[in-house]
Amino acid sequence: MRGGKARTRTSTAGKDITGDFSNLGIAGKALGGRPTKTPTHPITLRGQDKKMNPVIGVNPNKNVEDEYIHNLQQQMHFMELEIKLLKEKVIEDDEASGIGSLFNDEKYSEMRTEYLKKIEDIEKERIRISEEAFILDAQINILSGQNNKLSDIRDKVEDTRKAKIRELKDRLFHLLKERESLEKELIAMNRDFAVQSKNSYDYNIQLKNEEEDDAHAKYRHDRDLAQAEERYNQKLEALDKVNAALDDIQKQFEANPEYQANQETIDKAIEDAKSMYVEMNLLKRQVEEMKQAAELYKQAVEDEKNRKRRLIDINKNLKAESEAKQQTERMRMQKLMNETKDPELREYMLNSQKISGSIADLEDNLDNEKDKYDNLQNERVILDRKTLELNEELDKNK
Questions:
Q1: Region Disordered: what ranges (predicted)?
Q2: Taking the model in full, what pTM does it have?
Q3: Tens of pLDDT, residues 224-238
């Protein structure tokens, strides 16, 4: 009875040990069961909110792993204490039952083997967990370094982006100011272009009217010259008639003995002849003066041509300077147009260049028309002066 009672108490102790091991995380039959591996990742973190993101660079399971190892060490310690107590109790029961050391050597040698095996398994599990912890720490260090590098790269990229944004804003501000200035210049150019177009139209109308006046003046000059030549020819014919009359009178005088009676008539005829001779000399002098006037007119025309050539040379030099300035401005505008990315601003610059070219062409045409107008004005002044002198001479001779 005592032996059966001891076995019953041993089984109960084995159940108690198994239950204690189960409570400590070890599963198995009595002391012979193999410990189950407790996973590390599904374990929830104490003292942390599950909704919060873990801090990069820190192992979130490090405290849990340390606690798990500590629990295993406590389990080992408790198992040693329980085995020690159980061994002492079994020995007492065996001694009381009379079985002695034989039962102890046979029964607990196997239990010690199982116990050492469990200790070895626990040690292996601890080593495995330490290795995993070491690997996780290495990975965390690598990820921390990468995270720091990425943070540096992100900061550099952010600084570069902000600097680029500031540069683009400054450039946009300058471009807007330049665009506003160009728009003002374009408005002024359009206004000047409208004024010049109106002036050009008025100048063409005036030039046409002056050409008509010049044509009329030339017609009058040719007409007056033809009339003067006709009067001169008439005077010559009259002089020829007078000379013929004198010859007739001389013949009559030679044939007519009444010389004294006709003396007064002869004297009068001589006086008329002298008067006609004087008038003829005056006409000759007028013709000479007209020839001199024609020579002066030719000389004035030649001088005007020379002056025009000088003005053309000066105008060419001024035009070359203006073209150089315009070329410089076009190069500056082309450079700005190549640098800018705004299509509207590029189109605006192209239109400005076209308008500048059109204005330059209009200025050239205006200069040419002014030169023509100045030449016609000079010729008109000369013709008017000569015509006035001829009219005065003709009025004196009437």
A1: 28-47
A2: 0.24
A3: 777 777 877 877 787
